[in-house]
Amino acid sequence: NAGVTQTPKFRVLKTGQSMTLLCAQDMNHEYMYWYRQDPGMGLRLIHYSVGEGTTAKGEVPDGYNVSRLKKQNFLLGLESAAPSQTSVYFCASSLRKQPQHFGDGTRLSIL
Amino acid sequence: DQQVKQNSPSLSVQEGRISILNCDYTNSMFDYFLWYKKYPAEGPTFLISISSIKDKNEDGRFTVFLNKSAKHLSLHIVPSQPGDSAVYFCAASGAGNQFYFGTGTSLTVIP
User: Fold this and answer.
1) pLDDT digit string (tens) for A37-73?
2) Which of A10, A41, A98, A101 to probe the B interface (max B CBs under 10 A)?
3) Chain B residue with minimum CA distance to A42
């Protein structure tokens, strides 16, 4: 049972490049979340989804887009990466609104 | 502005003693609270939760206390074990789907 899997685990980008982070869960959860964690700050919600085909903005959505075309996958996109988006990104999933199961994170550096 | 605050960045406790981690919140509409534990290079792991209709919730060695009038919650770990050494985050939510996280407290349990 893999739980929540994030791909990739590490990535270095140049300013202006684009990329997509993939989150996959095998628990048939309805809710999925994308958070970022920065030094000295707690996890901040970027976007979330309460079911297949739905997405909503969180606390810090600017510069990111998301899609939930399949229930098990939640994609986070950076269209034009900026150094301020250097962070550790965590995906989470849950049956109800409480984020219960987290992936191990994606470390993203933007130069 | 940070709606959930953990004012102690770190805490050291002897093995076998009680660990008390504190969390304060500012939004009186928050009605559900959670604690997570995080090891380095891993995602957070859900530990215990409490809703605002209770003032205490217990799960094994972990107990969460909620003081609504003071907008304060605490996590007690008794007895503390070396494996409890980790960063602990509290999080809070109101009527919406967003959870707001504190900045974390790093607990070290000394053998």
Assistant:
1) 998 888 999 999 999 999 999 999 999 999 999 999 9
2) A98
3) B103
